[in-house]
Design a protein that fits this description.
Blueprint: H1 8-32, H2 37-46, H3 66-74, H4 79-95, H5 100-107, E1 115-118, E2 120-130, E3 133-141, E4 151-158, E5 167-174
Parallel strand pairs: 1-4
Antiparallel strand pairs: 2-3, 4-5
Length: about 190
């Protein structure tokens, strides 16, 4: 069975089958402060990251809410891994709301591309409109699963000429244009990176 043919029940069955493996890897994941590479790859092969991704780009395009069921099933083995699978799937759902040009950039050459988000800047940042997008600089916080994602969505407010208030944007940025600070030391969801 290919990923494109999976149903809700197929996904949940695969998740339940992974619980013992995730349980055995919980300490390793906590020590790494992110999911082990093997878990990321197994989730990818199982189709977990594609549950809400547009079908046009190899996703399952299942109904919103499946990500919660997925997290509930995986959470019996590892809460951090469950959170990562669920939240990364949600980011594909957000990616599917972007214009077709952006979706093509995300998944056109790599249908396995994954997206992270950070909706909270750490202090000041700059967001300068350009002819073909935004020029961004700054630091954003808390981006679950960032280490295995290809893109990140950053929340920014952009001052437009003549506008009273800044306009909020969700800027889509390739990970190759970012640097990741290794500063995730948390007491809960330790392995979410």
């Amino acid at each position: 069975m290919t990923v494109s043919n999976l149903t809700r029940e197929d996904i949940l069955d695969r998740a339940r089958e992974m619980v013992p493996v995730l349980s055995r890897r919980t300490k390793q994941a906590d020590d790494l402060r992110r999911m082990p590479d093997e878990t990321v790859e197994e989730f990818r092969k199982a189709g977990f990251y594609k549950i809400l991704q547009p079908a046009k780009y190899g996703g399952l395009e299942l109904p919103y809410g499946i990500q919660t069921e997925l997290a509930m099933a995986l959470g019996r083995g590892c809460a951090s891994s469950a959170w990562d699978a669920s939240i990364t799937a949600c980011h594909a759902w957000i990616g599917g709301m972007y214009a077709q040009k952006a979706q093509q950039e995300i998944w056109g050459e790599n249908q396995d591309a994954m997206i992270s988000t950070s909706f909270r800047a750490a202090g000041g940042y700059k967001a300068q409109p350009t002819d073909d997008g935004l020029l961004l600089s700054g630091i954003w916080q808390f981006s679950s699963g960032i280490r295995h994602c290809d893109w990140v969505i950053l929340a920014v407010d952009v001052k437009q000429d003549g506008a009273e208030r800044p306009t909020p944007f969700l800027a889509l940025v390739p990970i190759s244009e970012c640097s990741i600070e290794d500063n995730w030391y948390a007491s809960g969801l330790t392995a979410t990176g």
